[in-house]
Design goal:
The protein is mainly α. The chain has helices at 5-22, 28-38, 42-53, 73-83, 122-125, 153-161, 165-174, 179-192, 197-200, 208-219, and strands at residues 88-89, 92-93, 102-103, 108-109. The chain folds into two domains: 5-83, no CATH class; 122-219, no CATH class. Helix content is 46%, strand content 4%. Strand 2 and strand 3 (102-103) form a beta hairpin. Helix 1 runs antiparallel to helix 2. The model has no long low-confidence stretch (mean pLDDT 85).
């Protein structure tokens, strides 16, 4: 296959030009890729371009946190216009329920994004409590033999993103330190087999960990307004 040297120079020039444009004012990534290309012979460079074309690899850039030079949406959109690429497309929507699919009247952002699965999986940290009678004196949360699985801040964010507000409210208040609300909920379970957050609202006493934090802040002469 004929791969003229001039074609490679044009390709390298094009890549380095737009890699440099992604973060205006910074030549860090240009230097990285210039050094990478310099270490490739023509065969290696052609194989590298082939892997890019087959989408087996992606070009990556380094964008340090807190740097003065940043990746910006406005700059990315300007580069896309320069290259003739449109990030926004009308998409086909299938609502189901025997409703025919339709093409959205509004254009939406369509692009590839990395997907990071949370390292913490419930199946790896779940445990079954022996009872629900032991609580921590400071936080009011289950402890000892009553302690089961915990919910992390990223998991809270996932629940909030899915608009599971009632579930989130139960986990971080009724089951997260509100002793009076927790007891009222358990009593409702024992009497009726179920519980309603709205029904037990009058019996709630507040999350004890929040109350403890307020006392700590006040003891340090810090404003605890709102806690």
């Amino acid at each position: 296959m004929d791969r003229p040297r001039g074609k490679r120079r044009e390709t390298e020039k094009f890549l380095l030009e737009y890699i440099g444009k992604l973060i205006p004012g910074s030549d860090r990534n240009v230097k990285i890729y210039r050094a990478l290309f310099a270490g490739m012979d023509d065969e290696a460079f052609h194989a590298f371009m082939g892997r890019l074309e087959r989408r087996e690899i992606r070009l990556a850039i380094v964008a340090p946190n807190l740097s003065k030079e940043k990746v910006t949406i406005a700059n990315n959109l300007a580069i896309a216009d320069e290259l003739g690429h449109n990030f926004f497309e009308r998409i086909w929507i299938d609502p189901g329920n025997d409703t025919p699919p339709y093409l959205s009247p509004v254009r939406y952002l369509v692009c590839d994004l990395t997907l990071c699965r949370q390292a913490q999986l419930l199946v790896k940290k779940i445990s079954i409590p022996e009872d629900n009678r032991s609580v921590d004196d400071l936080t009011g949360q289950p402890s000892g033999k009553s302690e089961a699985s915990k919910i992390s801040f990223p998991e809270n964010q996932v629940l909030a993103a899915f608009h599971l507000d009632k579930t989130l409210h139960e986990l971080i208040t009724l089951r997260g330190g509100d002793t009076q609300g927790f007891n009222a909920m358990n009593e409702s379970f024992a009497r009726t087999g179920g519980a309603s957050q709205k029904a037990i609202e009058p019996f709630r006493g507040g999350v004890k960990s929040t109350q403890a934090l307020r006392v700590m802040l006040l003891s340090m002469h810090l404003d605890a307004e709102g806690l």
